[in-house]
UniProtKB/TrEMBL annotation:
<comment type="similarity">
    <text>Belongs to the sigma-70 factor family. ECF subfamily.</text>
</comment>
<dbReference type="InterPro" id="IPR036388">
    <property type="entry name" value="WH-like_DNA-bd_sf"/>
</dbReference>
<keyword id="KW-0238">DNA-binding</keyword>
<dbReference type="InterPro" id="IPR000838">
    <property type="entry name" value="RNA_pol_sigma70_ECF_CS"/>
</dbReference>
<dbReference type="GO" id="GO:0016987">
    <property type="term" value="F:sigma factor activity"/>
</dbReference>
<dbReference type="InterPro" id="IPR007627">
    <property type="entry name" value="RNA_pol_sigma70_r2"/>
</dbReference>
<dbReference type="InterPro" id="IPR013324">
    <property type="entry name" value="RNA_pol_sigma_r3/r4-like"/>
</dbReference>
<dbReference type="Pfam" id="PF04542">
    <property type="entry name" value="Sigma70_r2"/>
</dbReference>
<keyword id="KW-0805">Transcription regulation</keyword>
<protein>
    <recommendedName>
        <fullName>RNA polymerase sigma factor</fullName>
    </recommendedName>
</protein>
<dbReference type="GO" id="GO:0006352">
    <property type="term" value="P:DNA-templated transcription initiation"/>
</dbReference>
<feature type="domain" description="RNA polymerase sigma-70 region 2">
    <location>
        <begin position="28"/>
        <end position="94"/>
    </location>
</feature>
<dbReference type="InterPro" id="IPR013325">
    <property type="entry name" value="RNA_pol_sigma_r2"/>
</dbReference>
<dbReference type="Pfam" id="PF08281">
    <property type="entry name" value="Sigma70_r4_2"/>
</dbReference>
<dbReference type="GO" id="GO:0003677">
    <property type="term" value="F:DNA binding"/>
</dbReference>
<keyword id="KW-0731">Sigma factor</keyword>
<feature type="domain" description="RNA polymerase sigma factor 70 region 4 type 2">
    <location>
        <begin position="122"/>
        <end position="174"/>
    </location>
</feature>
Amino acid sequence: MAATTVDLKEALAACAAGDRAALRAIYERECAAMIGVAARIVKRRELAEEVVQEAFVRIWRNAHRYNPELGPPRAWLYAIVRNQAINILRSGRREDLVDEVPEDVASAVQAHAAAERIPEGQALRRCLEGLEVRRRTSLLMAYVDGFSHGEIAGRLGLPLGTVKAWIRRSLVQLRECMG
């Protein structure tokens, strides 16, 4: 393990000096794990690959900023990946990666079909039916279909903040109704 740390330190120093082969060595050693870390954050493989690609551009440009006294090189590398993934989520670029085929209608139909499978007399169904249709749709797309807030916003053509607020308020309303 210590050899890996030394190698990464040397590779980062070489990157800072403009050695592209050193960047390639870091890429070959860490890329798969970095994609895994990014995928856990952004929830989509293709977006995780984009995160890692952009992270390596940052690594190349900022290798001179790595200070071994502040921590191990691997921690520095993965902090860049994590920050890049979070930046992409915040920027809303995740919404741009929804499928080209408009699935908003299909997703809404699937979500409502799941809600309709709840027996009529149950409180959950009654409470869900008490929600405004678009809010109920966004809530069901999140919890039944497993879409992220960004994906729901992209599919429904709504601002991300609106979707987040609808889901949060709908959960509060459901909790009050069920309680």
